[in-house]
Write a structure and sequence with these properties.
Elements: H1 2-6, H2 10-22, H3 33-38, H4 45-50, H5 53-56, H6 60-72, H7 74-98, H8 115-118
Length: about 120
């Protein structure tokens, strides 16, 4: 992890770590938190500084049109992310449910339980 290498400078590294988290697609939604919040993908600072193909061939007018289009479909993008998240949750539930072994207990059977569980909660 990046903060592990920073040792005493972790305060200076927090913005970088948060930016990378916000611009990395999540498994559940297949979108970045940044795009779900602002309706557009972020351009990374390194892309601007180095001058990648994406930034060197950028057209301001075309970019404005695409941003307006993205705002028009923003609600749909959030809905799609919500559907993906629900599907991911169902798949996770199915995965764990397949490994659960059901056991029915009868009255009078002895069962082993943790000591903390038998104590009354105040």
């Amino acid at each position: 992890m990046r903060l592990g290498k920073a040792k005493g400078n972790c305060i200076e590294e927090i913005p970088t770590v948060l930016w990378s988290y916000r611009t990395t697609p999540r498994t559940r939604t297949r979108e970045t938190p940044f795009s779900l919040t602002y309706g557009a993908e972020a351009t990374l600072l390194t892309e601007v500084m180095i001058g990648t193909l994406r930034t060197s061939h950028a057209d301001e007018e075309a970019n404005s049109r695409v941003l307006r289009l993205n705002l028009d479909i923003f609600d749909e993008m959030q809905e799609k992310a919500s559907i993906c998240q629900a599907a991911y949750k169902r798949a996770t539930e199915r995965y764990y449910s397949q490994r659960v072994k059901e056991k029915a207990f009868k009255v009078g059977e002895y069962v082993l339980r943790k000591n903390e569980a038998s104590r009354a909660q105040p």
